[in-house]
Amino acid sequence: MTDRHDHHDHNDSHRHEKPGMDLVSHHGDDDVCLNQVSFAYDGQFVVENVTLHAPHGTTLGIIGPNGSGKTTLLKLMLGLLRPNAGTITVLGMSPAQACARGDLVGYLPQRHELDWSFPISARQVVELGLVGRRGLLGRPSAADRRQAADQLAAVGLADQADVPIGELSGGQQQRVFLARALVSRPRVLFLDEPTTGVDVGAQENLQELLALVKEQLALTLIVVSHNLRAITSTCDQIACLNRTVHYHDKPSGLSREMLSRVFNCDVEYMLDPHGHERH
Predict the structure, then answer these.
(1) Which of 68, 192, 227, 232 could form a disulfide with 242 if both were Cys (CB 3.0 to 4.6 A apart)?
(2) What percent of the chain has pLDDT over 90?
(3) Looking at per-residue confidence, does 24 or 268 come out higher?
């Protein structure tokens, strides 16, 4: 990988919109801004009055129990949902605008959301990451194919390029989808439960790889997870979410009392004696 282009100057991207719209002037060097964001399903708030800011180059981990609003918050940041109140910007744009560009936002989904029986090779999966740039009906160019091959090599899977995705191990599949998320050379990468469904060794490999690509591409990472151990060991900032944000700061300031209150259980019970999460 090579260094990507310089970080975009957002100072001219300030916008003023009506309440409930997802455009707002962001703060300084923040790549992702949420200000007093709320969202309700059928009149019931699942995200309420959430304010988060992720400066450029930050790894922000968002943790919380099942049903805490993590998935909804991620969909809001990806422009798949629009807030009922509050404002969101990604790189000074609305989430929908940033994602539509095709080369600003990357997304690594949960493994269980994917159809592993679909007959597609690892290389073809990675090439799909360039669809936003070339259009849904456009065929991969020679440059696209080279870029996909380079990205597979960067995640250590050059020799698996033509293997059907369903025949790879869980850890290899996750690296292929990381390559797909990075092939367009985005500036912000969203990750949804990236360690779910892979063994401990593959989790550690993925965390090391993420640290490497973050440095090489000068990425801002937003990681949504229930894996306390992984989040606290790899993130610069942590946000504890249970409908609203209960904590947003450095991991070192997050107390077990706060975690117990947010997760509504004994945090010690969530970790076994070896520091691995219980399920």
Answers:
(1) 68
(2) 45
(3) 268
Domain ranges of the chain: 19-104+187-196+219-271
Sign of CA dihedral 228, 246, 68, 220: negative
- pLDDT for 154-208, tens place per residue? 999 999 999 998 888 888 888 999 999 999 999 999 999 887 777 788 788 888 8
* Helices (H), ranges, 188-276: 200-217, 228-234, 256-263, 267-270
Class of the domain covering 19-104+187-196+219-271: alpha beta
Question: How many Cβ atoms are within 10 Å of 119's Cβ, its own excluded?
Answer: 8
Judge whether 181 and 189 are in contact, CB under 8 Å: yes
Report the pLDDT averaged over residues 219-240.
88
The position carrying tokens 């992702």 is 32
Buried residues in 139-174 as b, exposed as e (16+ CB within 10 A): ebeeebeebbbebbebbebeebbeebbeebeebbbb
Q: What does pTM read for this prediction?
A: 0.80
Contact 32, 188 (CB under 8 A): yes
- Residue 103 has what DSSP assignment? S
Name the DSSP class of 235: -
What stretches of the chain adopt beta strand conformation (E)? 30-41, 44-55, 59-63, 85-90, 105-108, 188-192, 220-225, 237-242, 244-249
Q: For residue 191, what are its two tokens?
A: 């990750």
